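FORM 7B: Structural annotation worksheet

SECTION A. Query
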Amino acid sequence: MSRLLGSVRARATLAATLVVAVALMAAGTAVLLSLRSNLLGEAGTQAERSAREVAAELSVGTPYGELSLDVDDRPVQVVDGDGGLVAASEDLERISGTGVGTVKPLPAATGERGDDDGDDDRDDDHGSGESLEPGEIGERTTVGDGSATIDGDTEDYRFAAVSVETRDRGRLTVYAGAPLSAEHGAVDTALTVMLIGFPALLAVVAWVTWLVTRRALRPVEGIRREMAAITASEDLARRVPVPDTHDEIARLATTTNETLAALESSVERQRRFVADASHELRSPIASLRTQLEVAAAHPELLDLDGAVEDTVRLQRLAADLLLLARLDAGERPADARVDLAALARAQAAGRAGVRVRARDAVAVAGSRGQLERVLGNLLDNAQRHARSAVEVSVRREGEVAVAAVADDGEGVPAADRERIFERFVRLDAARSRDDGGAGLGLAIARDVAVRHGGTLTVRDAPAGGALFELRLPVA
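SECTION B. Predicted structure
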């Protein structure tokens, strides 16, 4: 059961069925109450009409024996001001709900009263409490429910009571009933239809919802199966199917494919990085090993300077790889206050042909060591490609600190201005590794700039060559 309810289809079907069930119960209750109210109102109207017809006869002096009391076999009672029954339907056997339980008038009550008796009863306010003139029928109608037995048949009735002031018999009250069999029948029929129809309708709703959700979630199952296959095969080149529905599921599939593409690119970049790093490390290690093996066999042939140079190169490469690993891991830079102008002057000191233009201090927030690495890498790259001179300028543009490194070399072709920031990329493929770096300097500089909330771009220098601009937020 818990596994079934864990299904989206089952939960959606259950929720839809419950909502429809609540709506049907509310609507059914409202319909039954409205139907019952309307039918009761109609029965009350019929009872009032019958009562007023008898009251009209009494108002014109019709004797009790000539009253129309047996029309449509409905119970009718005529009660005098003292509560005595003076007239009733002929076949009335039992009655309740009118306040007068007797069904046969007393013989003495059926006699007509004289004018004096009428005058005595005229002031009696029994019944509706209205003040009426002789021959006038009361406007108020009292309605209530009860039952009656007529000629052996017992039914529920809606009774209406109407008062009439007669000229010779005083205040009389007429009780007339209308049967509630139609109301009961209609309500019972409606209730039966609801009890049979509602479950059938709920079953249809559940079935349709189950089918619709199965069809709607079919692409999700396809996505799940494909993702499971990708996980099992570790083939990130595969993609999940995108349905032609242009809905949330299609957007989910598209986003999933974009995530797979990004993951594939990341894994491929990492593999290429490991391969390139292994390749770059192999050269200085092999050179250093060769020199040590030669030195072990022939100490007099030891190239100590070359061994130290290879060791330093290996050390720098290891430091670069470690820094890139920390940057890839999302290491946040320190929040120290660093003077970019002083940092540029410190990095340019001792470098031949490097001139610094920075009059005022420009403070930025970040890691002093990483920013030193950025400027050092930019200066190394500029000196490697410059013909004679390198210029470093530091300035402030609003809320941005700008450090620019320009050389007078051949510059960077427009098509390669983004590629040079990739790892292990060298534009001069014929250049030896001894003369050039490992292709990590500019990649490290770009990553550090981005981690500090800035940018690093390259364009043509005004005097020719390349101009690298480092832009960082001012502290």
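SECTION C. Observations
The longest strand covers residues 137-150. Residues 113-126, 429-435 have pLDDT under 50 and may be disordered.

SECTION D. Sign-off
Analyst initials: ____
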